[in-house]
Amino acid sequence: MTGHNQPLRILLLGKYGQLGWELHRTLSPLGEITALDYPEIDLSNPERARRCVQAVQPDIIVNASAYTAVDRAESEPELAAAINATTPGVLAEEAVAQRAALIHYSTDYVFDGSLNRPYTEEDLPNPLGVYGQSKLEGEQAIQRVSGSYLILRTSWVYSLRRDSFVTKVLSWSRQGSTLRVVTDQISNPTWARMLAETTSLLLMQAGSDNLDWFQDVTGLYHLAGSGYSSRMEWAQAILRYDPDPDGQTIREILPSITADFPTLARRPLFSALNCDHFTRTFGLRLPDWETALMLAMSEIKPS
Ligand SMILES: NC(=O)c1ccc[n+]([C@@H]2O[C@H](COP(=O)([O-])OP(=O)(O)OC[C@H]3O[C@@H](n4cnc5c(N)ncnc54)[C@H](OP(=O)(O)O)[C@@H]3O)[C@@H](O)[C@H]2O)c1
């Protein structure tokens, strides 16, 4: 850890991802940032990742890299496990060796979605697919090392920069007169920028004695957009906040169910996260998902 006058050394992994791209911006004022992504760093190679941390000697590692292709993971379980489980464990080990802290993100897909209330950190995970299983193993690998870490479990992350549910709905809305969207998948839409900004506010709270601060708050937290919605309600809101509604050809959104769209991976149906523990601990919360969506979409220029 650096002293009071030394800039914080931050190692950001996944700088081209939805979240990582936003983190690169929000973390930059906080210190000296080394931001990497594939192929500069390959998280499928844990020992290469270890050497990278040793070379950078960071005070904080922020890992926004992940294997996030939920369906493809079913046929690439070893690759998903290396990136999402083995390497995060190695990052945690190297964080301890460097007296650094680790911020890592996980997913609502660690749950099976069979509850009828939002999941808390005490609820037992039971992933339905390879992706969720690999992310759960990543959480456990970090926890086993017992260093200073924050695991932030989030849900339904979107950005307007990369393909996401929001950009897909906008594109589908210009391709036909009807759109079928499922009503039985429910969770918290989370704008990547809000997640990144909140991560930076955490580092602000950590201040210059950040390792002590991390030791006090080390653990796993749920952090996602407040409230929850079905995919259908989310799609309706996206069309409502579309700054160019005249460009839409769509006339109707038809309700559908998950069973109508067979996919390689099973997905949890009700995987909303209860984020009260995060708010009680840090005094921060993400705004309700619809307000965040409205703010995100107000950035799009009508064509
Ligand atoms: N997206 C969601 O809905 C969602 C929901 C819940 C939790 N999360 C979690 O939130 C975090 C951020 O997700 P995100 O949506 O920002 O993910 P993302 O957009 O898919 O970004 C992940 C980044 O990791 C990179 N990456 C993949 N394989 C790599 C490798 N072998 N070595 C180095 N980098 C590699 C990706 O590069 P390429 O693009 O080249 O593959 C990409 O830049 C992840 O931990 C994810 O599990 C996401």
Q: Can you put this structure into words, describing what you see?
A:
This protein is an alpha/beta fold. Helix content is 38%, strand content 17%. It has ten helices and twelve strands. The chain has helices at residues 18-27, 46-56, 77-97, 130-145, 165-172, 192-206, 210-217, 231-240, 276-282, 289-297, and strands spanning 8-13, 31-36, 60-63, 101-107, 148-154, 157-158, 178-182, 186-187, 190-191, 219-222, 229-230, 252-256. The strands form four sheets. The protein has a six-stranded parallel sheet, sandwiched between helices. Strands 6-9 form a two-stranded parallel ribbon. Strands 7-12 form a two-stranded parallel ribbon. Strand 3 (60-63), helix 3 and strand 4 form a beta-alpha-beta unit. Helix 1 packs parallel to helix 6 (192-206), helix 2 packs parallel to helix 3 and helix 5 crosses helix 8 (231-240). The mean pLDDT is 95. The structure holds NADP nicotinamide-adenine-dinucleotide phosphate. NADP nicotinamide-adenine-dinucleotide phosphate is lined by residues 14, 16-20, 37-38, 41-44, 64-68, 83, 105, 107-108, 135, 154-157, 162, 192.
